[in-house]
């Protein structure tokens, strides 16, 4: 059964889809992530765990420092999102 509890993005294994719930980052970091397409409630796929943590948002891949990935709270999705 999938978990509906928020977890840090950095805790997910590669291949996992998750929906962004919130962040515990600075205002500047949040602004930069939004400019890159990583917005509240968007669906991401973890491509690579570790340092850097690489996630795919729509058709874009973004490399995140572990400290940034630790501050992004997500809810794992039970299946591949429709779009």
The CATH class is Mainly Beta
SSE run: EEHEEEHE
- Which architecture per CATH? Roll
| Number of strand segments | 6
Task: Give the class from helix and strand content and strand pairing.
Answer: alpha+beta
Q: Spatial order of the strands in the main sheet?
A: 1-6-2-3-4-5
CATH superfamily: Ferrous iron transport protein A (FeoA)
Q: Over the alpha carbons, how many angstroms does the gyration radius reach? A: 11 Å
Helix fraction bin: 10-25%
How many distinct helices? 2
Short description:
The protein has 83 residues and is α+β, with helices and mostly antiparallel strands.
Q: How are the secondary structure elements laid out?
A:
Blueprint: E1 7-8, E2 17-23, H1 27-35, E3 43-48, E4 53-57, E5 60-64, H2 66-70, E6 72-76
Antiparallel strand pairs: 1-6, 2-3, 2-6, 3-4, 4-5
Structure report:
The protein is α+β, with helices and mostly antiparallel strands and 83 residues long. It has a single domain, classed as Ferrous iron transport protein A (FeoA) (SH3 type barrels). Helices cover 17% and strands 36% of the residues. The chain is built from 2 helices and 6 strands; from the N terminus they run ββαβββαβ. A hairpin with a 2-residue loop joins strand 4 and strand 5.
């Amino acid at each position: 059964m999938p978990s509906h509890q928020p977890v840090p993005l950095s805790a997910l294994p590669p291949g996992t889809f998750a929906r962004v719930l919130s962040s515990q980052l600075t205002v500047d970091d949040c602004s930069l992530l939004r400019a890159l397409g990583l917005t509240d409630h968007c669906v991401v796929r973890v491509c690579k765990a570790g340092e850097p943590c690489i996630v795919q948002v729509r058709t874009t891949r973004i490399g995140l420092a572990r400290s940034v990935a630790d501050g992004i709270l997500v809810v794992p999705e039970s299946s591949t999102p429709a779009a």
